[in-house]
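FAQ: What does the model actually see?

It sees only this:
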Amino acid sequence: MQVEVWSDVVCPWCAVGKRRFEAALEQFEHRDEVEVVWRAFELDTSTESAAPGESSGPGEYAARLAAKYGTDVAQAQEMIDTMTAAAAAEGLDFHFERAVRANTFDAHQVIHAAAEHGLQDAVKERMLLAYFTQGEAVGDREVLVRLAAQVGLDADTVRAALAGQTAASAVRHEEAEAMRLGITGVPFFVYDRTYGVSGAQPADAHLEVLRKAWADSHPLTMVGDGAACGPAGCAV
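And it is asked to produce this:
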């Protein structure tokens, strides 16, 4: 069974949703037969990346959030507090005051390329940690190279791929696919191209869909046509 997840590395609910999905997968009886594929989705394609070391400051993220959603800074800070608490409940340590403004197109290219080496989830996880906890500039190519190398990708290969934009068309294809599927917000989980789960839903919700999708793709096959009632069983 395949689960595709459209998300962005600067989306806080994507990080929370990843943890909740992983909790469900851990309980799923057939977890070793589930392929998880991370797909690209940019929350804001117009964002200009800040340079490494450029401090966001304590109120900069709240100001950006307020501008995006047309609210005031105080309400934006309440949103941040809610997200921070939700993250903490899942074992995540968010520090929005460290978040460095980033265009994530290159990050998605690295995540896509990592799939060829069986390291896609590791790279995705590393970038989420880098952005939300460590204040890394995930819009900077050399930072992306370093982060990818830390989880096993060859630095020179990643650097060359970014320079040549070899995964650019694949990322654009995934983003276009999201539009075709009607995905307008992330995280968004697609189970075997049959069931869609929008948002950072609880683990129990994911577990229910995992089991349903598995049952649909692995129907019970009846063997034999024995008596309906006898020593081995009875029908109602």
